[in-house]
Automatic annotation (TrEMBL):
Segments forming domain Major facilitator superfamily (MFS) profile: 26-478
SUPFAM superfamilies: MFS general substrate transporter
Originating gene: hext
Transmembrane segments: 19-39, 82-104, 111-130, 136-158, 170-193, 199-222, 284-308, 320-342, 349-373, 385-406, 427-447, 453-472
GO annotation, cellular component aspect: membrane
Keyword annotations of the record: Membrane, Sugar transport, Symport, Transmembrane, Transmembrane helix, Transport
PANTHER family attached to this UniProt entry: SOLUTE CARRIER FAMILY 2, FACILITATED GLUCOSE TRANSPORTER (PTHR23500), SUGAR TRANSPORT PROTEIN 1 (PTHR23500:SF574)
Name of the protein in question: Monosaccharid transport protein
Organism: Vicia faba
NCBIfam families: SP
Length: 516
């Protein structure tokens, strides 16, 4: 999520302004962009475990899944086209977020949101009406383009609209709306799967039109951000807008800083080359490693494929979808814990605790699946206690993610980039995230087939690595104003060697959020 969670001017200045009803409603509407992203994450797993859907589009998978003689639970879903269906969206999102960054900068955030909403709408329609695999994948690519546009513009919009004191909470608010989207999708899948005639999957996929319509209409009625208006030359309009959203007349200081930020960012000719300078090595490293690690927690194995996974380890179809609903609820509730605790306990404490919690659960799940199926994957009757234990551990794992790597994977990068590299660094962060989301989605079913229960140990290994990395390499950023963020690197045993020891970064950073 670009540039949210950043207290502009905090520390040495206080901009007047309130959390006005106007800005609250505006931000709630804009945050619906997260809802759509979440809906997409949640819907595909449930749909790909529905028999009528499989029978129509992936008959080979359907036969394998239901064959009397199919003995290998781990491999029943292994299919290239089935994975392509899920993962094509993320590749499309990766590509379009690059294009969207130019549109967002030149024509404003609202236009990108509008494009996002419209592409979603068409993608959902095509998917709901799909007659063949090609239609399915084309629809999904359009949804992916929509996500690229929305994820580029919505968080930026939120961070520019929010008063700085509430920017952190709003940042995780976007993640919260992602988790609500996932949950809604899981609940709908559960009910739509029961529809007689087997066409419920059409409602699941076509249902994405509802959040798409909300964001499309929202983008038409939402006001422009002052930052975007300044960037496009309308300073008078921007000042009037700032007064309106802050609910006070005295906005000069913030306004002047926004103008200064815009001028500074325009002076940087090549933000990409800038980013490669030695002094930005800590930020560049974090912009790559944090999203990489976030995806290698293995969370999307659960988010995309929970019903498929539960089905693979012996749950009946209905119980699989229900279990996905349960993990969805845990995801939402645990994200709220993070909103509550992130500025109290700090980022490192959440990262470390979440890491240990995820690790224990991954090992426990691996052991229980191994005990049940061994390496042959032969199914048997599933005792109730066993099912409960597996779901319980998966829930504790999801909770660990939802208050650590979930929100912090977006929050921490956004608060450590100084103004002059924020645009480029944030693009790196988003692209790396989408790339590894794509990769995990693409290889998961094959990995489950070949690595069996070892898949959970594979991700557990990465959780160990990332937890050690956070412990040794990530300084605490809680309560540190962005202008002073460079001091965390200067006092770090390793990163200090890359950072210059003069203090000119303070001047550079004081303008506020740069337009990405
Ligand atoms: C991640 C997504 C994930 C979601 C789960 C987000 O922070 O970027 O990949 O599916 O959290 O809640």
């Amino acid at each position: 999520m670009p540039a949210a969670g950043i207290p502009i001017g905090a520390g040495n200045k206080e901009y007047p302004g309130n959390l006005t009803p106007f800005v609250t409603i505006t931000c709630v509407v804009a945050a619906m962009g997260g809802l759509i992203f979440g809906y997409d994450i949640g819907i595909s797993g449930g749909v790909t475990s529905m028999n009528p859907f499989l029978e129509k589009f992936f008959p080979a998978v359907y036969r394998k899944k239901n064959a009397q003689h199919s003995k290998n639970q781990y491999c029943q879903y292994d299919s290239e086209t089935l994975t392509l269906f899920t993962s094509s969206l993320y590749l499309a999102a990766l590509l379009s977020s690059v294009v969207a960054s130019t549109i967002t900068r030149r024509f404003g955030r609202k236009l990108s949101m509008l494009f996002g909403g419209l592409l979603f709408l068409v993608g959902a329609l095509i998917n709901g009406l799909a007659q063949n695999v090609a239609m399915l994948i084309v629809g999904r690519i359009l949804l992916g383009f929509g996500i690229g546009f929305a994820n580029q513009s919505v968080p930026l919009y939120l961070s520019e609209m929010a008063p700085y004191k509430y920017r952190g909470a709003l940042n995780i608010g976007f993640q919260l709306s992602i988790t609500i989207g996932i949950l809604v999708a899981n609940i709908l899948n559960y009910f739509f799967a029961k529809i007689k005639g087997g066409w419920g999957w059409r409602l699941s996929l076509g249902g994405a039109m509802v959040p798409a319509l909300i964001i499309t209409i929202g983008s038409l009625i939402l006001p422009d951000t002052p930052n975007s208006m300044i960037e496009r030359g309308d300073r008078d309009g921007a000042k009037a807008q700032l007064k309106r959203i802050r609910g006070v007349e005295d906005v000069d200081e913030e306004f002047n800083d926004l103008v200064a930020a815009s001028e500074t960012s325009m002076q940087v000719e090549n933000p990409w080359r800038n980013l490669l300078q030695r002094k930005y090595r800590p930020q560049l490293t974090m912009a790559v490693l944090i999203p990489f690690f976030q995806q290698f927690t293995g969370i999307n194995v659960i988010m995309f494929y929970a019903p498929v996974l539960f089905n693979s380890i012996g749950f009946k179809d209905d119980a699989s979808l229900m279990s996905a609903v349960i993990t969805g609820v845990v995801n939402v509730v645990a994200t709220c814990v993070s909103i509550y605790g992130v500025d109290k306990w700090g980022r490192r404490a959440l990262f470390l605790e979440g890491g240990v919690q995820m690790l224990i659960c991954q090992v426990a799940v691996a052991v229980s699946i191994a005990a049940k199926f061994g390496t042959s994957g032969e199914p048997g009757d599933l005792p109730k206690w066993y099912a409960i234990v597996v779901v319980l551990f998966i829930c504790i794992y999801v909770a660990g993610f939802a208050w650590s790597w979930g929100p912090l994977g977006w929050l921490v990068p956004s608060e450590i980039f100084p103004l002059e590299i924020r645009s480029a660094a944030q693009s790196v962060n988003v692209s790396v995230n989408m790339l590894f989301t794509f990769l995990v989605a693409q290889i998961f079913l094959t990995m489950l087939c070949h690595m069996k229960f070892g898949l959970f140990l594979f991700f557990a290994f990465f959780v160990v690595v990332m937890t050690i990395y956070i412990y040794t390499m990530l300084p605490e950023t809680k309560g540190i104003p962005i202008e002073e963020m460079d001091r965390v690197w200067k006092s770090h045993p390793y990163w200090s060697r890359f950072v210059e020891h003069d203090d000119n970064g303070v001047e550079m950073a004081k303008g506020g959020v740069k337009n990405v």
